[in-house]
Amino acid sequence: MTDLIRKDAGKPLRDAMQRRGMTQAQLAARTREVDVRGQGVSVATVIKVTGRGRTAVDTCRLRTAWLITSALAEALQDHFDMPSVSTDTVER
Fold first, then answer.
1. Residue 51 burial by Cβ neighbours in a 10 Å radius (0-12, 13-18, 19+)
2. Contact, 35 vs 29, CB < 8 A?
3. Residues 15-49: pLDDT tens digits?
């Protein structure tokens, strides 16, 4: 499974949340609304992905990134970079 890398240590995500007046808990709740499975992203994960400091993470799963950016009504690529292409696989 491929992880995406958040841009600028999550600042674009925090800016989008601020523009919409959303807290991390509200964003987590909104991810459940946009998730066809109704699961969404936990508040703890939203805090890690959007946060700063020691508890923040720079990568997350594609599904997590998609749910968060969908809940913010923002483009995925505005907030996350795709990982570089692996050269480990050799076509035969």
1. middle
2. no
3. 999 999 999 999 999 999 999 999 999 999 999 99
